[in-house]
Input
Amino acid sequence: MGTFLAPLLPSPQPTFAAANDPEFSSILAALLAMNDDDYFGGESPRAGESFAAADDLTSLPAFFFDQHDPPTAMPFPAPVPLAPPPPPVPVDAAHHGGTAKRKRGRQTTTSSPSGRRVWVRERSTEWWDRLDSPTTCPDAEFRRAFRMSRATFAALCDALGGAVAKEDTALRAAVPARRRVAACVWRLATAEPLREVSRRFGLGISTCHSIVLQVCRALAAVLMPAAIRWPDDPLAAAAAFRAASGLPGVVGAVCTTRVPIVAPRNNLAAYYDRRLTERNQKPSYSVALQAVSDAGGAFTNVFVGLPGSLSDAAVLGRSSLCARHGEAGGQQQQLLVGGASYPLREWMLVPYAAHGRNLTWAEQEFNGRVAAARGVARGAVRRLKARWRCLQRRTEVKMQDLPSMIAACCVLHNVCERAGEGIDPGLMRYDELDEEEEDDGAAAAHGAATASAAAVQARDRIAHDLIVLHGSHAIANSGMASQSKFSEHHSL
Output
């Protein structure tokens, strides 16, 4: 509090009748004490002390009296009323941890049972409402957006409803299960940033991220055991492959691809992907995805999560396929077909490698049949990455959440394949699998060197049987052609 000094009165002995009043002296002493020792004159007077004892009353400030007429009332300034404190700002305790934040957009206020007001921001769901309504969005547009028809999407929501549905609270209504599933499917299909996905579906960014992870976990935990399973009837699966490729006893084709990721914090060198680095011209990292496909293009076994720097043979050796079949060939009648990057085993058929020599006719015929069978798995993986574009781009999902996201894409792939959902030809532009076959020659040489004698004999026997079957068909076809020429000659 500042000190106010006024000019002293020129009168040598002014008359001030109230100066000797004890009550007035007490009031004046209290006022001067409140001024933090900024009093006027010498020592601050104490309560009950008379001002008449002062030698010079001119030391009193001018505003206590008038120069000509002794004042009858003290002209003290009127007290200034204090402004009331501002009302408390309602905050969203659920989203901001008790701190208020300004957001653009329309906001409403709701009250909890305890009487506390909470801001609830109204987010627009116009985009999703238009796609969800059959009257405003044709089925063809819905299929292009979510990679499946409305009927398949409705069945998917019914299967996941109990796992992803949430209950309403006193503060706000829960996001419907159908919108939750749609947000996750859209995110996996388009790989859009979370900011755009949240805007389309009327969600917060953090809420949208949580919903995507929850639905992915539900797909992996609830639907994966039923959607991705080994054939219940191996004979029927082998018959389908034999009709497609001519190879006997084959129940599945193996294909391994890589899913790009951001640079992990731990084991950086293990996830370094040389092929992606050469193609992208910058350091790239990935995880391996090994899938076994049936003759229809649906996955019967999926193994994901190993570092992308591992070879296809190393991924196969650590997968559940080796435990299922075993090195001793416990299930020799259930054969698998792999590319040249896989090792030759009694239960795994791989093509012959040239090794600087010319392949025989039997070996060439066998390689052609193996390529036809493995083309089923390669096509399935291509459709998988074409439908769910999040597998083509570097995902920012944490490493512990990455397996469930990739497994969710594989589950959705099987749902679409078994429901007969077609794929837009414009999406089939992913040719990474062709680039992954560049150095298969060295891998094939290593696989042949480590193959057992029983595996080599089993492959040679199948190739010989193919030649016998193909030779009989060739003889029959040539005999029919000779007979037709003989008949034509005699008819002329």
